[in-house]
Amino acid sequence: QKKQQSISNFFTPR
Amino acid sequence: MLEARLEQANLLKKVVDAIKDLVQDCNFDCNDSGIALQAMDNSHVALVSMMLKSESFSPFRCDRNIALGINLTSLTKVLRCAANEDILTLKAEDAPDVVNLVFESAESDRLSEYDIKLMDIDQEHLGIPETEYAATISMPSAEFQKICRDLMALSESVSIECTKEGVKFACSGDIGSGSVTLRSHTNVEKPQLNVEIDLSEPVALTFSLKYLVNFCKASGLSEQVRLCLSNEVPLLVEYALSNNSYLRFYLAPKIGD
Questions:
Q1: Residues B18 and B37: beta-carbon distance below 8 Å
Q2: pLDDT of residue B56
């Protein structure tokens, strides 16, 4: 089962 | 102060229309390079990044950085009052309570003026790393929209698989499965119909179709859309606008254990 990732796992706050 | 005049209200109408179902309240960050917007959707699965370069306006004046916190539902209400071909001017003071929108008809002497109350939006900016994508696909935006809508009838998710053979959009659901494969294609007479696949290594990723269908609301902004993929990173869906302006969507993938 594939799990939906969150954008914040890839892009971090500046 | 900000003063930015757009030749056609249509551009802003289409941009706001394309993102308003994804993000509700957002800051329009204005500085001397133009007007930018970055916002995640509520579920933090997608990110919208818009850049309207100062060259897309004439004239464009912005002396210092101003963040205009705007509710997109309110902005939509006001933009509906503008005709597509109206000249649109955005104005704001340096520490504004409102943004002022002026719509002028080029053909008559009508001049409409609206103010929208601004909001304080505490939005964190995400750093988007420079990525050398493994696969870049340029294709007609209408074609991409049709593929996403068609596959959504069968499934919640689509797998996008890019090899040197082409790009394959595939899904499977309760009623069955389906796929659409595109290969590179050059149409000399109608370059807007070209499909261009630039691949450095094969890619296979799975994405939620609900979001992709939502991004496709931007199809009216550009004849072509660009999809950029690398394994295990968010997909970039880009609609290029004139003067290097753009509307970009990032979508986090679905990844197996």
A1: no
A2: 97
CB B193 within 8 A of CB B187: yes
Alpha helices in B105-240 (DSSP H): 141-152, 209-215
Amino acid letter, B45: V
Instruction: State the pLDDT at residue B257.
Output: 67
- Find which of A3, A5, A12, A14 to mutate to test the B interface (most B CBs within 10 Å of its CB): A5
Strands B87-92 and B98-104: antiparallel
Dump strand ranges (E) for B42-134: 46-53, 60-62, 66-71, 87-92, 98-104, 111-117, 126-127
Instruction: Write out chain B residues lying below 8 Å of A9, CB-based.
Output: 252
State pLDDT tens for residues B44-68: 999 999 999 999 999 999 999 999 9
Phi-psi region of B120 (alpha: psi -120 to 50; beta: other; left: phi over 0): beta
d(CA B169, CA B162): 9
- What percent of chain B is helix, strand and coil (3-state, nearest 5)? 20, 45, 35
Nearest to B180 by CA among B146, B228, B138, B130: B146
Residues 6+ apart with CB under 8 A from B173: B154, B155, B156
Which residue numbers of A have CB closer than 8 Å to B's CBs?
1-14
